């Protein structure tokens, strides 16, 4: 009972229900399906993985370690932005990347059963599927207010500090991440590297897609979802 109360206190005082945990895990998995579709399309990685992939290509650092370093840097930025509002549970965002990595490996393996995108139209279709799955995943797992991926954690922090909607801030953050990955890839490799048309589309459209999913959900259920709750 004491352990249960401790976890409730750490996770914003809300009851740690099965539905809350399920939405969290399900949402994370939907995002990894989106990442897998982006890789399968051949039009560039999803924004969330563009910098780690660029680090992997440039310095030959194993992708898991590159992801860990990237997430750690984002958590540090979040710590600076939130100051006293930064909670101890937010440090765990770095380690959520491990679960995210396992889900990603499984999702990428599933893509082996799908024929490769041998036409531009099919590749573009897979890119849009990637955007949809990532946006749906964000809509499911972010409002659970458990432990976000550090990309969403820093997005929430910026949204709170600037008093902007999560969906709008998500576009800014994704564009910044992709631009950084592009500069790293071009500066060190002389090529686009991890960035492609699908990466750019993801950066521009994922946040907007989350907004429209939220609007559709509100129209159907009448319930507003708080995407900035930390």
What is the gist of this entry?
This protein is mostly helical and 230 residues long. Helix content is 73%, strand content 0%. The chain is globular, with a radius of gyration of 17 Å.
Describe this structure in words.
The protein has 230 residues and is mainly alpha-helical. The chain has one domain. 73% of the residues lie in helices and 0% in strands. The chain contains nine helices and no strands. It has helices at 2-10, 18-41, 47-59, 63-82, 93-110, 120-141, 150-162, 166-189, 197-221. Helix 2 (18-41) packs across helix 5, helix 4 (63-82) runs parallel beside helix 7 (150-162) and helix 7 crosses helix 8. The model has no long low-confidence stretch (mean pLDDT 86).
Secondary-structure topology with pairs:
Elements: H1 2-10, H2 18-41, H3 47-59, H4 63-82, H5 93-110, H6 120-141, H7 150-162, H8 166-189, H9 197-221
The secondary-structure element order is HHHHHHHHH
Number of helices: 9
Biggest sheet, in brief?
none
From the N-terminal CA to the C-terminal CA, the straight-line distance is 24 Å
The tally of structural domains comes to 1
What is the number of strand segments? 0
Question: Uncertain runs with pLDDT below 50, 5 residues or more?
Answer: none
Range of helix content: over 70%
Any idea what the radius of gyration is? 17 Å
User: In terms of structural class, how would the helical and strand content be classed?
Assistant: mainly alpha
Shape: globular
Mean pLDDT: 86
Strand content: under 5%
């Amino acid at each position: 009972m004491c352990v249960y109360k401790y976890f409730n206190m750490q996770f914003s005082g809300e009851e740690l229900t099965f539905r809350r945990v399920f939405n969290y895990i399900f949402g994370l998995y939907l995002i990894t399906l989106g990442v897998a579709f982006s890789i399968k399309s051949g039009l560039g990685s999803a924004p969330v993985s563009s910098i780690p992939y660029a680090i992997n290509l440039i310095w030959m650092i194993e992708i898991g370690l590159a992801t860990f370093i990237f997430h750690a840097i984002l958590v540090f930025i979040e710590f600076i932005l939130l100051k006293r509002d930064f909670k101890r549970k937010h440090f765990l965002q770095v380690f959520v990347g491990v679960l995210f990595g396992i889900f990603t490996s499984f999702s990428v393996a599933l893509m082996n059963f799908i024929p490769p995108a041998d036409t531009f139209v099919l590749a573009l279709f897979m890119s849009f599927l990637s955007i949809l799955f990532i946006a749906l995943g964000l809509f499911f797992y972010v409002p659970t207010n458990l432990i976000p991926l550090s990309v969403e954690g820093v997005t929430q922090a910026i949204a709170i500090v600037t008093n902007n909607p999560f969906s709008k801030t998500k576009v800014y953050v994704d564009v910044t991440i992709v631009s950084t990955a592009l500069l790293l890839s071009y500066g060190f490799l002389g090529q686009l590297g991890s960035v492609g048309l699908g990466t750019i589309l993801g950066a521009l459209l994922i946040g907007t897609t989350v907004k429209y999913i939220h609007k559709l959900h509100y129209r159907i259920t009448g319930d507003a979802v708080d995407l900035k709750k930390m």
